[in-house]
Amino acid sequence: MPTLDLSPLSGPLMLAFMISYMLYGVSMVQIFFYHVHYPKDKLQLKILVWLVFILETATTIVIGILGWSMFGKGFGNPLSLMDVDPTMAALPFINGIVASIVQNFLSWRIYKLTSIIWLPAIISVISLVGCGFSFFYGARILQLGLHFESTFVVATYVDIWITCSAVSDVLATTAMVTILLRSSSSTIFKTRNAIISNLVKFTVETGLITAIWAVVQLVLWLKIPRQNFHYIFYFGIARLYSNWLLATLNSRLYIASSGQVITIGTQPPARPTFWTDLPRIRPVDDSWPDMDMRHLGPVVRVMTTKEIKDDFQMNVISIGPSERTDNSTIYV
């Protein structure tokens, strides 16, 4: 008598549970790092970070209950893979909210960096549409009953939700990389270019992973919806967005300590490109950018950074024409 092969159903779910908890562990490390190194962040930003982490924790609890229902209490019963625990109804709502929060945060960053409204607005609208369809999907699942087959009845909602999420991620990542590359091309200084290159790599690595994650989830859902492989990505999506947000914020410490910058000219050095409006890097004397130095002629400014607890101090040394010759060499 042939036996029923349940591995296409149970195997992906088991992987989904393991990957989900692995990503949650990464989030715990990141939230600890953020709490220790950025105590002076604005209250609104702290609330945003902790809200996302709390929602991520809620999805982790739901996934744990679901795993116990399927592989603990329902061990040996194939029907346990079809009838899901009622707590799973919370996942579409929480995943949609977390994705929308992070995507709108990134669109806000793009606006602050460029002062261009139309692109962040497009990203935000697409993100909110996706969040809305995640709510429609969750509400319809509650009406139809908590059964895996119910998902296929409302497949259109799922299609639109995942597509909007993937498009928002791709647009946000592309916009951030474009901004940084343009900043890199506008400066001739190798150290600054190196810092911006690191920023580009970081943005691509974090944003592209999330975008690819959403795209792969969409492809698996459209191609093999009944084999549960898409749940590997569905269960982990909130944790991935949370890690994206935390990694973006925690990167300031690395960016600020990337080295020393030498600028030559009559204008004060440009402020950091990526976090211009957040008070993470600031000169010891805040008055120097407003000083009129045009009468001094060409000036060499040597800026060195050193770590002081959670913040950074930047020392500026200005050497005027009377203190150097044309052949002077500055070592940093």
From TrEMBL:
Sequence ranges assigned to domain DUF6534 in this UniProt record: 165-252
Family matches, as Pfam families: DUF6534
InterPro entries in the cross-refs: DUF6534
Keyword Transmembrane on entry: yes
Spans traversing the lipid bilayer: 12-35, 47-68, 88-106, 118-140, 160-181, 202-222, 228-247
Keywords of the record: Membrane, Transmembrane, Transmembrane helix
Protein name, entry field: DUF6534 domain-containing protein
